Records
---
Amino acid sequence: MGEFAQVRLRIRSHPALERLCDPTHTRALAASELERLFAALGLTLVFQGRAEVEYSVEEWMTHGGPAPETAAEIRRRMRDSIDGDRTGLGVREVDGELRFHHTAIAFLLEKPS
């Protein structure tokens, strides 16, 4: 699979997993989209921090509470994505536990007086 095809697969795979876990999930805005939104609202970006947040798949699934058969499908997809990092989430198995990471971004904004 070519690099472009791998990127497209990652772009589709991650949101699909999110929706399986929590059907109300729509999509996460990219940092650049948020920055444009802040600018359009007249807000000044004072600070932006990024961190990798690590989860176990079991811990992460508690936020959506998928049915047992859906949880099994999520585990299968996560496990299948390990080879080649097909989700872009760095899924790996550690001591028999599926783990992955999300990038979290925090913004500190200033509103003009």
---
Amino acid sequence: MCAKVEKLVEQYLSDKIANADEVFFCSFMKVRTDPDNRTYEFQSDYQRTITTIGDVMKEESLVQLVLFKDAIKHIIRICRITNLEKGHLIIVGLGGSGKRSLCALSAIL
């Protein structure tokens, strides 16, 4: 199974991965499309991701968050899990670390 996945990644994504600092997949880059029609797609541009999330924060009048790489990764994980059928998660961390803010933002995306 692993060999098949590696072969598919090399076949379809090798040129994109070679030029990327970090690789991630998300479905919220086309925010205004119907959630049922969104595709889970390859992303490697953090700046585009930060811009998309920042635009949503401005439109929804949410508190402006500082979107550093770890926050982006957490938002991507939360969105991925909550978009699954019967998807749920427990977010654990210190009080005041932004758990509620990231969850609210992910719910909108």
---
Amino acid sequence: MMPVLLHIGPFTLGSYAVALGLAFLLGGWVLGRELERRGLEAERAGPMTLLAALAGVGGATLLALLEDWLAGRADVTTLLRQVLG
């Protein structure tokens, strides 16, 4: 698998980001179908999927930064630089 799929100026699109996006899209579609099958509002699948994506990616990022800090591999300024770009 190619690590970088597209590179335009400062924007780089990686294969992991594409795979993650496709996984959330497919998960949202399956959730919508399941909600509809159970007689619930299928329109809620979009916001639920977006919330799950943000919480999952954000939580994983925070955990990785916390582990780096606790292991002594990074100080606070390095962590802030990683988060803020």
